[in-house]
Amino acid sequence: xxxxxxxxxxxxxxxxxxxxxxxxxxxxxxxxxxxxxxxxxxxxxxxxxxxxxxxxxxxxxxxxxxxxxxxxxxxxxxxxxxxxxxxxxxxxxxxxxxxxxxxxxxxxxxxxxxxxxxxxxxxxxxxxxxxxxxxxxxxxxxxxxxxxxxxxxxxxxxxxxxxxxxxxxxxxxxxxxxxxxxxxxxxxxxxxxxxxxxxxxxxxxxxxxxxxxxxxxxxxxxxxxxxxxxxxxxxxxxxxxxxxxxxxxxxxxxxxxxxxxxxxxxxxxxxxxxxxxxxxxxxxxxxxxxxxxxxxxxx
Length: 299
Prior knowledge:
Blueprint: H1 3-25, E1 29-34, H2 42-57, E2 61-66, H3 69-78, E3 85-86, E4 89-90, H4 94-117, E5 122-126, E6 133-140, E7 143-154, H5 156-164, E8 168-172, E9 174-176, E10 182-185, H6 187-197, E11 202-207, E12 212-213, E13 222-223, E14 225-227, H7 228-236, H8 244-256, E15 261-266, H9 272-278, E16 285-288
Parallel strand pairs: 1-2, 1-11, 2-8, 5-8, 7-10, 11-15, 14-16
Antiparallel strand pairs: 3-4, 6-7, 9-10, 12-13, 15-16
Helix pairs in contact: 3-4, 6-8, 7-8
């Protein structure tokens, strides 16, 4: 067999390996939280959008929820403002909120543009639109961190309507409280709330880490699959700290509220979404509900 023919057969094998996953998740909703370095690097941005577009075209129903923290920080510095943090959370005063909303709107329409370029119809929507995300003021250990909101209600009908009309919704994490005041929302929190509200089959976090480690100092301790009980035990036993702690808590919360599985992926790896969802090995950490016997199919 010549080399060219082997290359074609290898490609066919990749498609066959993906088939059971395509069948299993056809017409199912998947929420992708898009953030970290994958939003800054133009090549990675293009690859993430290609991945999500492919998911759409093979029958999934993706919803993108994007962040923009690094870009907000860049613009806050650019306009000469001093960023303030309490317990690692950005304090969002009125001026910062104004900058954040402008930056997030710019990011949102940029993502819409990338998806449209690939021939898929996308709609960028803010959490303000149609009361998509209703919030209440969030505090950090009792301290006031400004216009940062906790999602208390999601108007899922808006997202269902867009999906039914074959659009790919791209959500900007800004919402309104009962007095119609604008609040910034942590994108992880927004993605989690949306995934719960639409009973998503999958929630995928694109981050700047490879996944969940038993020992953060040991790259070989990456955990490919975790049940909710195991995840809670890792937290209780003190293995999880820093930025991974709220993320893992969000994952557990999503699973306990009807999401079948949550993935934590390294968005710096090209096409990480496809590798995790469509291959037998996977590359990140999958957190499963107790009914799920295992994530990957046997080879």
